[in-house]
Amino acid sequence: MDKLMIEGGYPLEGTVQIGGAKNSAVALIPAAILADSPVTIDNLPNISDVELLSELLKEIGGSVELSDHEMTIHPEEMFSMPLPNGRVKQLRASYYLMGAMLGKFKKAVIGLPGGCNLGPRPIDQHIKGFEALGAKVTNEQGAIYLRADELKGARIYLDVVSVGATINIMLAAVLAKGQTVIENAAKEPEIIDVATLLTNMGAKIKGAGTNVIRIDGVESLHGCRHTIIPDRIEAGTYMILAAAIGQKVVVDNIIPYHVESLIAKLREMGVNVEERDDQVLIENHKEKTGVDIKTLVYPGFPTDLQQPFTTLLTQAKGTSIVTDTIYNARFKHIDEIRRMGADVKVEGRSAIINGATELQGAKVRASDLRAGAALLIAGLMANGVTELSGLEHVDRGYENLEEKLVGLGARIWREQMSEEEREQVKS
Ligand SMILES: CC(=O)N[C@H]1[C@@H](OP(=O)(O)OP(=O)(O)OC[C@H]2O[C@@H](n3ccc(=O)[nH]c3=O)[C@H](O)[C@@H]2O)O[C@H](CO)[C@@H](O)[C@@H]1O
Ligand SMILES: C=C(OP(=O)(O)O)C(=O)O
């Protein structure tokens, strides 16, 4: 068990390269199950969720070659091995094995997923979609059993706009007979990325990126090569970090259009953002003013950047209100940044931040992935040393974290936790 040691107060400068999108990668890897020949995915992020999925594909008989940022998946020998426990519980995206295995084998047994604990994260809309396609779905002791004699296209209206349900239904529908229409679909860039891979595999999909997706089922799918889009949440995290403690930071290899809502809010605060073709330059020399944000589905402000942005707002003058409309318990980082000196309180679904406050280094723990990002930013801004534990969450979504930060001039390194510290974490 490691902790991250962060010596705060050193301004950051330089260029940081952004990797491939976690939330695309974790859907693209299961999508390969649907093919009859090898699928190669590149610009793959070097994160633990990718490693876990690669192991899960091996458990169902696949062979996987993983080299530097590239994975080739051989699905020819895969079979519908039940996965009720184990690795499926360690990440959210294991739910995509349901759609992909149901689509390919017409049956699957998959344990309920893990992932960040942000309050209730039901999968009723995924199940509604599978049932509409003709599957019988039951929940037996925390595992979802799916079975169908055949899958037939259907019209499915999602009661809530869900990234996971939209992608999962696409995965189950591409090999179904006839047409499937997903209404009130999510529009995140990762959905377009998954539809692009499936289309290159031979699927017929129209409308990905809009709220109505039409899928005409095909008999079979073949392998192909696919390059993952840049991770807009990793990019956003470095942009927030640059606004918090950067002087002149270039966030490179991104699609600026995917982070428009963040750019708008940074500018509103008084941060200079220059948009270029595939990079943004963040210059931070003025006093920052507090702003209000409300998280929304894409293209609104992403919930996954809410926690890091809250930390930035502690450095802005005045009162800011952050409301998370997607998750009702995504404020577990607040108690920790308060311990570092921030003036923040949570009321219902909102955090109220009074700034600007000086932060002091402390021993803090990440309760989830983006809480980790929020505390990392706090540590880099704070006076003195911050010790951040809970790195198993952070490593799910940020590749080569220390390397990228040291490249920008940060003083940050990993250390093993002492026996006593490990005991404290367990209790
Ligand atoms: C692996 C992955 O891509 N994770 C992302 C995905 O999570 P995930 O796919 O879990 O998030 P959803 O878009 O499905 O969830 C959005 C909202 O809908 C609710 N809901 C969802 C499904 C369902 O069947 N029933 C239901 O009520 C959820 O509780 C939540 O309040 O999108 C989230 C919202 O952008 C991001 O925070 C996560 O980073
Ligand atoms: C919530 C997130 O991830 P997951 O859905 O994989 O838990 C995230 O990436 O911020």
From TrEMBL:
Pathway assigned to this chain's UniProt record: Cell wall biogenesis; peptidoglycan biosynthesis
Positions with a binding annotation for UDP-N-acetyl-alpha-D-glucosamine: R92, R121, P122, I123, D124, Q125, D304, I326
CDD domains registered for this protein in UniProt: UdpNAET
Keyword Ribosomal protein: no
Swiss-Prot/TrEMBL keywords: Cell cycle, Cell division, Cell shape, Cell wall biogenesis/degradation, Cytoplasm, Peptidoglycan synthesis, Pyruvate, Transferase
Positions annotated to bind phosphoenolpyruvate: K22, N23
UniProt function note: Cell wall formation. Adds enolpyruvyl to UDP-N-acetylglucosamine.
Alphabetized GO MF terms: UDP-N-acetylglucosamine 1-carboxyvinyltransferase activity
Modified residues (2-(S-cysteinyl)pyruvic acid O-phosphothioketal): C116
Catalyzed reactions per annotation: phosphoenolpyruvate + UDP-N-acetyl-alpha-D-glucosamine = UDP-N-acetyl-3-O-(1-carboxyvinyl)-alpha-D-glucosamine + phosphate
InterPro entries (alphabetical): Enolpyruvate_Tfrase_dom, Enolpyruvate_Tfrase_sf, MurA_subfamily, RNA3'P_cycl/enolpyr_Trfase_a/b, UDP_GlcNAc_COvinyl_MurA
Domain Enolpyruvate transferase residues, every copy: 7-405
Active site per the UniProt annotation: C116
Enzyme class: transferase
EC number: 2.5.1.7
Gene3D superfamilies linked to this entry: Enolpyruvate transferase domain
UniProt subcellular location: Cytoplasm
Name this protein carries in UniProt: UDP-N-acetylglucosamine 1-carboxyvinyltransferase
Family: Belongs to the EPSP synthase family. MurA subfamily.
Chief location: cytoplasm
Domain of life: Bacteria
